[in-house]
Amino acid sequence: MNYFRTPHEERNWAMFCHLGGLAYFIPLGHIIVPLILWSMRKDSSALVDREGKKALNFQISFTLYMFAAGILIFVIIGIFALIILGLLQLIFVIMAVVKTLNDEEFEYPMTIKFIQ
């Protein structure tokens, strides 16, 4: 059942699911914020359900990659890996937001599908 008044409003919620991945001011906010937004609206919109799952899968995957890179700090390569992963995360989230607002399909690269 769709409770949204306009497709624009539906796209906005989907966009906020992606933008929630940038909520680093909250510990684990990059996972918690998209999870909350997705949970609130997943039953009322197929678009929000689909995009929320993509955002969550991406953020969980990148958390694992960052953890692995953090362990590799002891062999110096981890520092470079953390910097590159941080930049890629920012770029991919921005790309997802723009594609969602333009009503285009976007698949995050390097994503493990935890939530189907």
From TrEMBL:
Keywords: Membrane, Transmembrane, Transmembrane helix. The chain crosses the membrane at residues 12-37, 64-97. It is found in: Membrane. This is Tic20 family protein. InterPro entries: MamF_MmsF. It is a multi-pass membrane protein.
